[in-house]
Sequence to fold (238 residues):
Amino acid sequence: MFRRERCDLCGDCVFHCPYVDYGREQSIEQFRRLVEGETPESVSQCVTCVACNQFCEKGANPFDLILERQEETGVLGIPETNTQLFRNLPQAPSEVVEGEPGRAVISLCSVGDLLPGLFEGELFEGCTFLKGGRYFCNVGWIHLGHHSPVREGALHGGFVTIRVHLPEDCSQPVPAVITLDGASPGMGIMHRLGEVGRTMEEILERVRIGMRVQAVWKPAGEREGAITDILYFRPLGS
Fold:
């Protein structure tokens, strides 16, 4: 939910967006027009990455307003066949792949493991996997410019939460489950934490469930519009 009382029209949400190129004054003007009920160019340029909610230090959730305007106007021009696909996802066959007691439970949403081998290896050994329509998280609707299904079935918050699995070798980024704004309760993406320390003691001191983190992006010229555009997440303010 967009929190108008927290928005001071600083323009950070648009200014720091990695997918548009507006100066500070242009960014302020773009979001001011949006708040006043218009549909500025940035609404149709939005790739629905939700990063602007993270850039907003006041917790105003600017992306939620962008998403509402996208649904109101249909400005993204998403084909009806794509929309119908999402309506059908909850009816997809469901499956529980049982793992070992005490190990993590990972939801693969309705799409399952689309990339063969992605969830293989030591990190995922013994994990339980949930996949199919029963576990559809609704968050995918935001990429079609629809906020209603997300509001009905997802949790809105201003914080990022993590579940961390610490490897013995701490010299590399730490695998973690990152829960982004708009995700359903208990849902997250597998990614990595960086800049959290070089020893186990440092990592245990810095990493906490509920800590705020921010994305570290690839250089603009190397981005492809995928989750891999984010190199890793680091503690906010580091």
Q: What stands out?
A: Helices lie at 12-15, 24-35, 41-45, 51-55, 62-73, 80-88, 148-153, 200-206. The radius of gyration is 19 Å.
